[in-house]
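Researcher: I need the complex structure. Ligand is 4'-deoxy-4'-aminopyridoxal-5'-phosphate. Inputs:
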Amino acid sequence: MQIADHITDLIGDTPLVRLSSVVPPGSGLVAAKVEYLNPGGSVKDRIARKLIDEAEASGELRPGATIVEPTSGNTGVGLALVAQERGYRCIFVCPDKVGKDKIDVLRAYGAQVQIVPSSVPPDHPDSYYSVSDRLTEEIDGAWQPNQFFNLNGPRAHYESTGSEIWAQTEGEITHLVAGIGTGGTITGTGRYLKEISEGHVKIIGADPEGSVYSGGTGRPYLVEGVGEDMWPGAYDPSVPDEVIAVTDDESFAMTRRLAREEGLLVGGSSGMAVVAALRVAQREPDAKIVVLLPDGGRGYLGKIFDDEWMASYGFLPGDDATQGSVGDV
Ligand code: PMP
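Model: Output:
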């Protein structure tokens, strides 16, 4: 019988689907790797399992311990899933720009969540890094996966995401496009694809305008889970051949199009990555591009998919203002 022993056994092996409607005629092929089909709903399930496996193996994580992590939600869900299976307690520290829906999900999985301000520098005592470090020190036997610096993050992607994409494209992939948050996805997946293709696969980062990866100062942007105001150790800047900056406006407009035109209800960082992928596809008609879509859109219904929220930031484009019109049923 084909029955998994635990939901965490179903992490990875996500499918690729061709994008069609959003891809302008004459562009290269764009295939999306649909990471929201992981059991916890995001790409982060992959690293959660690897980080915990390796910490158990090294003795850093002992039975019954508490896992403390600064996370915008998705890593928390992954960690909570694996923690449940193995009997650990979880405390997550989230910046206040993260949607309520995402926080509620973490709590539903049984985790404790502490909310901290988004708009303070990383070295401020209330920043999500500082609060996590303090909790880790204070709680006896606490372990912090430290996704921003833990090299098992990129390793998880080297071992799973990279080899899956190579096999699924039968080695025909020419470009990988992925957003950069901790940098784990692009570093691990990109490194694998560069090595196995002997440098033929080009690795393209997608980054919110304002973030340091695309030359910004770290000034705020609204897309969640990507971009940074510091340089995490999980990111190897020598892996991407190019980093494309994308505005919030472009990211959110594309996120809405993906739901309406491609049947892909995904988050804002997916929209951002697709905008970057389409730029590559338009300039390279022979390209075979894989773009990674990190999470699903249900956590953003009150934001990106909400006309009022969008309009409050001046984002709603004229041709997208048809929601709720008389003709809608
Ligand atoms: N998109 C979303 C929604 C995320 O939660 C993350 C993880 N922070 C990313 C993209 C980026 O992934 P990575 O941390 O591997 O760079």
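Model: Summary of the prediction. Residues 321-329 have pLDDT under 50 and may be disordered.
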